[in-house]
Design a protein that fits this description.
The protein is of the alpha/beta class. Helices cover 44% and strands 24% of the residues. The protein is built from 17 helices and 19 strands. The strands form four sheets. It has a seven-stranded mixed beta sheet. A six-stranded mixed beta sheet has the order 8-2-1-12-19-18, with helices on both faces. Strand 1, helix 1 and strand 2 form a beta-alpha-beta unit. Bound molecules: flavin-adenine dinucleotide. The site of flavin-adenine dinucleotide has 31 residues, from helix 1, strand 3, strand 9, helix 12 and helix 13. This is Kynurenine 3-monooxygenase. Its main location: mitochondrion. Its cofactor is FAD.
């Protein structure tokens, strides 16, 4: 798209939308960002909550492009690996990348959003309008309808490029749903999640610089560190199990039996209070195709590919969407309609692959990590990765520490699984052969 001060509208000032506004601002476009909520930087309730996310390579690359990587990582906490908590309280560390020492980082969602909004507003050509909600879109006419929530006035708007970064329940995507050949698939998994909290006063008893996991087969609990030594804890569990925990006795019985070492850290009162006052949140996975419509509409981030959070790639893949779009926009000879079509062609398969990987990783985190077969495979992966990193690229490393297309990461995994099964098969047959020969003589 020619940088002759064309107009871009971004809908949604969450993580992906506000980063997108920075990229578009940097390119010199006139940018208007509409966010339905009020400004979180002025909202004392939002400021008080610390919910964190893991940022990895793809997210960092995008932040680097707009000069924000250092600022963001400056307030993030490195996590070198998983720390598994057994039922008896036994701990086991599982580094993410013992070969090249790469790590992921825990960052506060709100502070990251604040950094991104501040950066977007620093561009003179970016206007952020809070309390402005996309009501609907007449995508055939190329216009959107926005409501100013303060005055309740609804007005029509248009631009050369309109980007929906309005999250998993995207209004722009709903408008695209009505168009011919638009594919849409939505899955609510039967597991939900509840956020708990380890305060700074007991957080220093937790081993730092790890993502803590309490894997329990059908469900799990995880904890990510905050800067003040507190930890944000998330319990993922079938929704039916949440329903059965209705009173103090059942909650405490459950925790003391399943997560005994976490009870003193979270504290009984806080545990019971959170359970009795909060409904578990649902988890949704959304795939759709294409991600564009006509000559100007595009959806990115959760609006285009919401995924279950188990690979820590929702935001990272959304940030990568922005990097990919930005590279295409720099191809000056292309028109917007060609760019967004090309974007869809490049991106759909990749983000659908990471949605599948995210589903798989829940099983890995809550169950497989405890199995000897998983650990044996991880050890083999690490040896082969060290010996021939260009040929044997383990799944977690390719997803979290590289920009390899997600579908290639998935294809690699499938191929490696086959080779590994073959190796194990050959090994077992050789043992059998030796064993039979010993018996014969
Ligand atoms: P959102 O964050 O949902 O933002 C959408 C924005 O659009 C919001 O500000 C909303 O108010 C606004 N909006 C909505 N509708 C309208 C409208 N009609 N008009 C105007 N504005 C509108 N990802 C990771 O990479 N790493 C992690 O570790 C990680 N952990 C997670 C843990 C949990 C429990 C969950 C649920 C998700 C996790 N994710 C993680 C995923 C990550 O949170 C999302 O992928 C990311 O927030 C998506 O950003 P987004 O901007 O696309 O959408």
């Amino acid at each position: 798209m020619y940088q002759d001060r064309r107009k871009v509208i971004v809908i949604g000032g969450g993580l992906v939308g506000s980063l997108c506004a920075c990229f578009m601002g940097q390119k010199g476009y006139h940018v208007v960002l509409y966010e339905k909520r009020s400004d979180l930087r002025k909202d004392s309730y939002m400021r008080g909550r610390s919910i964190n996310l893991a940022i990895s390579h793809r997210g960092r690359v995008a932040l680097r492009s707009v000069g924000l990587e250092e600022t963001v990582l400056g307030s993030a906490i490195p996590m070198q690996g998983r720390l598994l908590h057994g039922k008896t309280g036994a701990l086991q560390s599982m580094p993410y990348d013992p070969v090249f020492n790469n790590c992921i980082y825990s960052i506060g969602r709100n502070s990251l959003n604040e950094v991104l909004l501040n950066a977007a507003e620093n561009y003179d050509n970016v206007k952020v309008k809070f309390d402005h909600k996309l009501v609907n879109a007449d995508i055939r006419r190329g216009v959107i309808r926005v409501q100013n929530k303060t005055t309740t006035e609804v007005f029509e708007e248009t631009a050369d490029l309109i980007i929906g970064a309005d999250g998993a329940y995207s209004v722009l995507r709903s408008a695209m749903l009505m168009t011919p050949m638009f594919q849409f698939n939505q899955t609510h998994i039967e597991h939900g999640y509840l956020e708990l909290y380890i305060p700074a006063s007991s957080g220093d008893k937790m081993t730092p610089n790890h993502l803590h996991i309490w894997p329990r087969g059908q469900f799990m609990m995880i904890a990510l560190p905050n800067k003040d030594t507190s930890w944000t804890v998330t319990l993922f569990m079938p929704l039916d199990n949440f329903t059965s925990l209705r009173d103090e006795d059942s909650i405490m019985y459950f925790f003391e039996n399943i997560f005994p070492d976490a009870v003193p850290l979270i504290g009984k009162n806080s545990l019971v209070h959170t359970f009795l006052s909060t409904k578990p949140s649902q988890l949704i996975s959304i795939k759709c195709s294409p991600h564009h419509f006509g000559s100007k509409f595009l959806i990115i981030g959760d609006a285009a590919h919401a995924m279950v959070p188990f690979y820590g790639q929702g935001m990272n893949s959304g940030f990568e969407d922005v990097s990919v779009l930005s590279e295409l926009l720099d191809k000056n000879h292309l028109e917007v309609k060609e760019i967004i079509k090309l974007y869809s062609e490049m991106r759909v398969q990749n983000v659908q692959a990471v949605c599948d990987l995210a589903m798989y990783n829940y099983v890995e985190m809550r169950d497989l990590v405890m199995r000897k077969s998983f650990r044996a495979r991880k050890a083999v992966d690490e040896v082969l990765y060290k010996l021939c990193p260009k040929i044997w690229f383990p799944l977690y490393n390719s997803v979290s520490f590289s920009s390899l297309e997600y579908r290639r990461c998935l294809e690699n995994k499938k191929l490696q699984d086959k080779i590994y099964s073959l190796l194990v098969g050959v090994l077992l047959l050789s043992f059998l052969f030796v064993f039979i020969n010993i018996l014969r003589y």
